[in-house]
Design brief:
Shape of chain B: globular
Helix content of chain A: 55-70%
Radius of gyration of chain A: 30 Å
Number of helices of chain B: 6
Bound molecules: iron/sulfur cluster
Strand content of chain A: 5-15%
Strand content of chain B: under 5%
Distance between the termini of chain B: 40 Å
Number of domains of chain A: 4
Number of helices of chain A: 28
Number of strands of chain A: 10
Order of helices and strands of chain B: HHHHHH
Radius of gyration of chain B: 13 Å
Distance between the termini of chain A: 87 Å
Structural class of chain B: mainly alpha
Oligomer: heterodimer
Chain lengths: ~600, ~110
């Protein structure tokens, strides 16, 4: 190999874009880290000098290059993302290796590896050279395959398991088309040059084909110009496009592994989350508001875009969400969009310290186990009665915390952004719990269970009744028979996905009924549509979501649909003819 | 328990004091507000109503009638638990009605509604 040139004006468009994007990224990273609250910066500092940094490095490799999470969702989609990202990465790495091997004195010219084939000529076919040529061509072919699939996805997204894809805006389109153009142009440029620089199966092959009907010599420089312009334009368009996700996701992974969470929407970690969203649109299909109620434009990807660009009615977009967490579960980048929405909602708080002055003075209830039925259980009293039967049978010394109706747990208020008002309830309920001297708090409603666990600082353990029943059966405090019924279990959002309680209800149900499998369980569980997380959804839209979920869950015609949430039970009961029962009620049947 | 059925304290309607603005705004923000039949189911189930004479049916009626002086302080008592939404035979999105009443009667706007 011998050097032909060291500079050509066609490197200028690339260099302009390259310098711009590097400055932009460095400034962005500095400002994002400066926006982190002090404690988060400390966490970050600690994690960088610990084992966590290796965890992050591995995750960056697996997610940003291989795209493992997308692979899990759909192989074709994963293959598409991996081909582009990993192929491109290989091109960059191999390009640098070439420079180091053949003209180490040029390593400090950033454009040299990019336009290597133009600047260098082949003098002898060394074995090393041909191996690198082969690898370079293979990597290029990989990227081109990915781009081909991406083009095809625009026409037929179902191939990749996506029913709906994101509707893109101008900045995204410019960046996307230039990105698509970069690699075919590189193929052309390298093919035209391959007579001089050499090449492998792809570039040399194309070079020979072109030679037979055009003059390659004349096309060399125009092709390199076009390649450079495409790359430069891509870099210039990157900040206004979704491709910021490429650098942002790496930073996100490091910060997330340091234990940092979003506190504000457009600053610090929240901002990095916004930039990390690749607008892949996976969250559109995951969202039942789009799948069942045709609210495609209300899904997370559009909320994220509005927030990043600070355009449109962001508050309204944040309100239109069930907070079911399905999109968070599906997101391959691991963006906690529900938290971002909560951050927006919080800004609408209308606190007035007098509002709950009517709360009665705390009366002391002394007991071992305190049972909080919750507002919704008072609407479906069968669940509360079943629990009382179970407590009675187990001979537990228990008392109800909200006999005849109590003070709300505060989560509905919180989800409406009224965190200060919710704090009054948290304080009051905590007072009642502390005064009782109880050793355990049992809640029947997953909505309450979640807030008791996360926002109350209680000195005693909190259990949902599914966990408690499992424990009672294990201890032999209650004995159950088999009901002979076939059952499908529905995971309530706040118990399953949002609190991670998946196994206890299944353990219990397997003993008392024939538990059937569905494809909508555990993390993939559905929302019943009744969620208190959304105050704006109309009754009609809710009904559509509930019917759709019920239909999907009961395809195998179980005798009963079992859930562990009074709100799910009530919502499903109104959506069809299927018999719906709470797990406590099924257990009571099995005790008889 | 005070079921609050005696809501018609006076038969006099004072048009000088009545203002339809708030009802119109609430209606625009949450159209299901229009179909209330005053059945009282919401107030029979109300979590806040167990502790204080708080009454959503009455609150909505006052807004409809334009007698909005005390409405804001009343609306603040709601715990937003959502029982009333599930119980309402007309399928009214009561939580959103409450948030809207709260917002449109507040001295300074509370929701960012455009
Ligand atoms: S939020 Fe996640 S799933 Fe949705 S578009 Fe962004 S990256 Fe994709
Ligand atoms: S949390 Fe649920 S309702 Fe909200 S956007 Fe995500 S999937 Fe849709
Ligand atoms: S339950 Fe519904 S229809 Fe009946 S009074 Fe309340 S809001 Fe009106
Ligand atoms: S949401 Fe408010 S008005 Fe409705 S039942 Fe609960 S406390 Fe009562």
């Amino acid at each position: 190999m011998r050097q032909r040139f060291i500079y050509d004006p066609f490197v200028l468009p690339f260099m302009a874009g390259f310098v711009f994007i590097i400055i932009y990224l460095v400034a962005g990273i500095i400002s994002a880290i400066r926006e982190l609250p002090c404690e988060d910066r400390k966490k970050l500092g600690k994690s960088i000098f610990s084992r966590k940094i290796f965890v992050s490095a591995r995750e960056i490799f697996m997610e940003c290059l291989i795209h493992r999470r997308i692979f899990r969702r759909n192989r074709m989609l994963g293959f598409m993302h991996m081909s582009i990202a990993f192929g491109w990465f290989l091109l960059i790495v191999l390009g640098h290796i070439e420079v180091r091997l053949y003209c180490p004195e040029r390593v400090n010219l950033p454009y040299f590896p990019i336009f290597f084939r133009y600047f260098m000529m082949e003098t002898d076919s060394t074995l090393k050279g041909s191996l690198l040529f082969f690898l370079m061509d293979a990597a290029l072919l990989m990227v081109l395959t990915g781009i081909g699939l991406a083009l095809y996805k625009r026409i037929n997204s179902r191939l990749m398991g996506m029913r709906r894809t994101t509707k893109l805006k101008l900045g995204d389109r410019i960046a996307m088309y230039t990105l698509w153009a970069v690699f075919p142009l590189r193929l052309l440029a390298e093919s035209f040059t391959s007579g001089i620089s050499g090449g492998s199966f792809l570039t040399r092959g194309f070079g020979l084909v072109f030679e037979s009907f055009v003059s390659n010599e004349a096309l060399i420089r125009p092709a390199w110009w076009a390649y450079s312009v495409a790359l430069g334009t891509f870099f210039l368009a990157m900040p206004v496009s979704r491709y910021m996700h490429i650098p942002a996701e790496m930073l996100l992974i490091v910060l997330r592994n340091a234990g940092i969470k979003s506190k504000k929407t457009n600053a610090g970690y929240g901002n990095i989350e916004l930039y990390s969203c690749s607008r892949c649109g996976i969250c559109i299909d995951a969202c039942q508001m789009s799948a069942a109620a045709r609210l495609d434009r209300k899904t997370t990807v559009y909320f994220m875009r509005m927030l990043r660009r600070q355009e449109g009615d962001i508050e309204a977009a944040a309100r239109q969400c069930l907070m079911c967490g399905r999109c968070v579960q599906a997101c391959p980048v691991g963006i906690d969009s529900c938290r971002l929405k909560q951050n927006v909602r919080r800004s609408e708080s209308f606190f007035s310290p007098v509002q709950y002055r009517y709360f009665p003075p705390t009366e002391t209830i002394r007991t071992d186990v305190l049972y909080f039925a919750g507002c919704m259980t008072h609407l479906t009293p069968g669940i509360g009665k079943a629990m009382q039967t179970i407590f009675g049978r187990a001979g537990v010394n228990y008392r109800m915390m909200d006999e005849g109706g109590g003070i709300c747990c505060g989560r509905p208020l919180m989800l409406s952004g009224q965190e200060k008002s919710a704090a009054i309830m948290i304080e009051k309920n905590t007072d009642i719990i502390l005064q009782s001297n109880a050793e355990l708090l049992v809640a029947s409603c997953p909505v309450c269970y979640k807030i008791f666990n996360e926002e109350y600082s209680l000195p005693i353990p909190v259990m949902h009744h599914t966990q408690y029943i499992e424990q009672l059966i294990d201890r032999g405090a209650v004995t159950v028979g088999h009901t002979g019924l076939s059952a499908v279990y529905h995971d309530p959002c706040d118990l399953g996905r949002n609190s991670g309680v998946y196994n206890p209800p299944r353990q219990v149900l397997r003993q008392v009924a024939n538990l059937m499998d569905t494809s909508h369980e555990r993390g993939e569980g559905l929302c019943c549509g009744g969620s208190v997380g959304n105050a704006v959804l109309t009754g009609d839209q809710r009904r559509k979501i509930a019917r759709d979920a019920l239909y999907k869950l009961t395809g195998e015609k179980p005798d009963i649909l079992v859930t562990a949430c009074p709100l799910c039970k009530k919502t499903f009961a109104g959506a069809g003819l299927q018999q719906v029962e709470d797990i406590a009620q099924v257990v009571v049947k099995a005790m008889e | 328990m005070d079921f609050g059925y005696s809501i018609n304290q006076s038969s006099k309607i004072d048009m000088d004091r009545a203002s339809g603005d708030i009802a119109a705004q609430v209606l625009r923000y949450e159209p299901s507000f229009a179909v209330c039949i005053g059945c009282g189911a919401c107030m029979a189930t109300c979590s806040a109503g167990r502790f204080t004479p708080f009454n959503l049916r009455r609150l909505q009626l006052m807004v409809m009638r334009g007698q909005t002086d005390s409405v804001h302080a009343e609306a603040e008592k709601c715990m937003l638990c959502g029982k009333c939404r599930l119980i309402c035979p007309r399928g009214i999105n009561t939580r959103n009605v409450l948030l809207a009443i709260h917002h449109f009667t507040a001295p300074a706007p509370t929701l960012d509604i455009r």
